[in-house]
Amino acid sequence: MTPSLIVTRGEETVFSHTGSWLHPLFALEEYLRETHLNPEELFLQDKIVGKAAAFLIVGMGFKKIKALTLSLPGKDVLDAAEAEYTYDNLVDRIQCRTERMLAEARDPSEARAMIDDLLKGSKPT
Question: What is the CATH number of the domain that holds 50?
Fold first, then answer.
């Protein structure tokens, strides 16, 4: 199965994940806690980067990103974080509940709290 998320340091792949939604990013957060790698020294490539993924990515400290598909709200988050990024496809939005839920979110910590509430089964406020 082709990874949906790949993280490299130079030519070396240090992390990859084949999951969907935000699960690869949650696994990456755990991996970074365990390995103490500096996200600013790594390159992250994700299959789809919407607003939620962009908030998680910049919240972890990544500055170099490639999205195969990037939403305009995700692009706004990456721009605000002054991240270096490229993309293959730019779309108006990702058709998913999380993108809609985070429409008004303005910073990574606010977005993370909303995502955590969603994971716990709470309704976002």
Answer: 3.40.140.30
